[in-house]
């Protein structure tokens, strides 16, 4: 089977056939521009962006509620931990009061209890009484205020004037 050049050209589609005029060096070949996609947003891209914006807006409120609940849970857990610490401190204090030695020490300190045979000694803070007993005078009075001194000097000057 022989194939001729005429059968080869018939087998090719019309768009890919070469024309009989081959560039013979008479100038550069003419280039054809390929179709370019339109610039800007296509309809599909616009719809896709609208769907994403709608989904973002739809998830905003539940996300805000979720975050508010998380912060509330954290606050309640902190309060619960503080209450547990207070309960532990109170139970520890209760255990101290159940000890008879601690109870005796508190009675001696706060209520001035003494054991039988002990002599109680109570110290009172009375500096005037202590000074009297020591044969000293009471502490000196505080000096007059400057305006009282000034006023008394004005009165004394008025009393001395002959007018």
From TrEMBL:
Q: Which Pfam families match?
A: DivIC
Q: Spell out the InterPro entries in the cross-references.
A: FtsL/DivIC
Which keywords fit this entry according to its UniProt record?
A: Coiled coil, Membrane, Transmembrane, Transmembrane helix
Compositionally skewed regions (Low complexity) per UniProt = 1-21
Domain of life of the organism encoding this protein? Bacteria
Q: Which residues form a coiled coil?
A: 66-93
Transmembrane spans: 41-61
Provide the residue span(s) of the region labelled Disordered.
1-39
Q: Write down what this protein is called.
A: Septum formation initiator
- The organism named in the record is Paractinoplanes rishiriensis
């Amino acid at each position: 089977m022989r194939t001729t050049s005429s059968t080869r050209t018939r087998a090719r589609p019309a768009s890919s056939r070469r024309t009989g005029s081959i560039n013979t060096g008479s100038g550069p070949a003419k280039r054809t521009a390929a179709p370019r996609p339109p610039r800007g947003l296509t309809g599909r891209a616009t719809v896709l962006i609208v769907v994403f914006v709608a989904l973002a807006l739809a998830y905003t409120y539940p996300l805000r509620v979720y975050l508010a609940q998380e912060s509330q849970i954290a606050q309640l857990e902190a309060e619960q931990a503080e209450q547990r610490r207070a309960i532990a401190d109170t139970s520890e204090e209760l255990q101290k009061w159940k000890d008879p030695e601690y109870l005796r020490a508190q009675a001696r300190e706060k209520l001035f209890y003494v054991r039988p045979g002990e002599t109680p000694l109570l110290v009172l803070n009375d500096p005037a009484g202590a000074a009297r007993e020591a044969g000293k005078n009471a502490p000196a009075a505080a000096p007059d205020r400057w305006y009282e001194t000034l006023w008394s000097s004005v009165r004394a000057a008025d009393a001395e004037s002959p007018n």
